[in-house]
């Protein structure tokens, strides 16, 4: 169950990062509200997952999901640049996440 909570927390991290971008520095109400609600929910689920998972694993996977997900949203939705170097960096992050999952005792 901890891995499910962690995965949802990671997806919510992507949501709040994208909403924060759309909030234009918290000057737009609805994206600002989505940012804050998603942040709180993401932190709460991360906290619940840390009851079982090691700190290093949980935090690394959470930030990795958020980083790669935000990169994908930026490229696919916001039209940001997808250079070979940026794609390689995302692939390396995903590789690190897989290794963290495989090395976790929980």
Automatic annotation (TrEMBL):
Q: Where in the cell is it found?
A: Cell membrane
* UniProt keywords, alphabetically: Cell membrane, Membrane, Transmembrane, Transmembrane helix, Transport
**TM helices/strands, residue ranges:** 27-46, 58-78, 84-102
This protein's source sits in the domain of life called Bacteria
Q: How does it sit in the membrane?
A: Multi-pass membrane protein
Cross-referenced NCBIfam families, in alphabetical order? Answer: PRK11431.1
Q: Which PANTHER family match?
A: GUANIDINIUM EXPORTER, SMR FAMILY PROTON-DEPENDENT DRUG EFFLUX TRANSPORTER SUGE
Member of which family? Belongs to the drug/metabolite transporter (DMT) superfamily. Small multidrug resistance (SMR) (TC 2.A.7.1) family. Gdx/SugE subfamily.
Protein's name in the database? Guanidinium exporter
